[in-house]
Amino acid sequence: MLGYQSGEAGTMVQLDVAGVQDAASVMAAWAGLGPAWSIAGTAAGIGRSLFEQRILDPATEPPDEADAGLRRMWREPWFVWVATIGRNGFRRGFVNAGAAGHYLFGTSPDGRVQLAAQSSSIVWHTLRDAVEDVRYQEGTP
After folding, report:
1. Which domain of life, per UniProt (predicted)?
2. What pLDDT band is residue 2 in, cutting at 50, 70 and 90?
């Protein structure tokens, strides 16, 4: 698992070894998954360079067109993490935005980064289901 804390904290790499039955729980704990007050809304699209700048510098201003949910997320400290599970390449990127919750991120065909608020339960089910799918596909008990 690899994560990046926004600001001057630098890159953090952590290796955890766990049995397959504990993999989703270990990932959720490592990523800081817990209760959060996510604001439901539509996915926000921002320029990739602005997203990368915000990862490096928390003082980066949000885009002018940002709605209340994106502005709230923008004010929180970010921990960016990517889950890659199994040989078939299951891969999801998230931003842990503290009290604003987790946001799924990905790049759209036009090159913009899409950010979509995810409830903690959705993130948990995503991780758990991905691990279970790999167990089934790879025949892991």
Report:
1. Bacteria
2. very low
